[in-house]
Amino acid sequence: MSLANGRPYLAIPGPSVMPDRVLAAMHRASPNIYEGGLHDLVSSLWPDLKALAGTTGDVAAYIGNGHAIWEAANANLFSRGDKALVLAVGQFGLSWAASASARAMGIEVEVLDFGKSAPVDMARVEAALRADREGRIKAVLTTHVDTASTIRTDIAALRAVIDVAGHDALLAVDCIASLGCDEYRMDDWGADVTVAASQKGLMTPPGIGFVWFNAKARAATAGSDLKTPYWDWLPRADATEFWQIWDGTAPTHHLFGLREALTMIKEEGLPQVWHRHDVLARAVWAAFDCWAAGNPDIGLNVADPAHRGRSVTAARFGAPHATRLREWCETHAGVTLGIGLGMAAPSEPAYHGFLRVAHMGHVNAHMTLGALAVMEAGMLALNIPHGAGGLAAAAAVVAAGA
What we know:
14 helices; seven-stranded mixed β-sheet; alpha/beta; 2 domains; Aspartate Aminotransferase, domain 1; five-stranded mixed β-sheet; Aspartate Aminotransferase, domain 2; single chain
């Protein structure tokens, strides 16, 4: 008999849980797009978006998902034949290089692939930059938190490596999975370009993406021959008329939701938002540490906590137990866990041994502890061997961090 009736909990790494306040803000008639309140609302977004990314630079907004924002960054950063150095610590670094059209757009791509469970090897990055004696690498592209592997990259350390190598490459950072969850300081850490989207830490439906860029990036990309009128970030960032921000009609109801989400982040305070995500992430890790004691097939994808993202945790359960557990949690308890993206092809048996637990955006202690309790109940119901004490360990982390 199912116990799933009631409000479901979507513990996947985006789209994230929609706050009631955001839903209520969007539940209204279409506004006047030519003047009035909508224009004032949009004007109020830019200071908050810049503060969220930790920059005094520019921000351009697009109607699109994360893949669209990758393409926006590519179009502005590069000309045909330019070279990018992509640092891949999972599926999404590889995707920025390939499916996000870098190669398809005529950009030469060098990929440093560090696998699915290891962080960026800064020594390899330095060596690659020093080997580029002609200075052909125009930008280094990296994820802050790879949504699939959940590996977090030390952006400040990466900037230091670029500087030590004496290279003039721009540093572009994908914060789609981390912004509004993990601590991020664009200017302080030396990033030149940041990309993010609305559907994760910003607690708004998929459909709006953002590119932040500093003066160095503005100057370096002024002559890109990949820019088209739609993707060019300058008319959007420098708009003198409202329609120019979107190159057409604004995503009206997304904007009402985004305004409310940013207000919620301001009310809580960004340092507290980061702290909340850190505590909830560590609670998940503590539970897994205990469960793994009873089954070596159970474990976290990233061994060192210093390299784990605070918005989502990738884990293994051994095939086919991860898929069995995900199905049980959703069908019998109303909790939807994330698939193990990029760890194995869906056609391979190993695919069914991985899952992800998201703790991003509008998530609190009872939601995370509840998801962990459901997972433990599922392991009991499915006779998946596991160590004891997972829930108590998670609760202790929450108690200490509250």
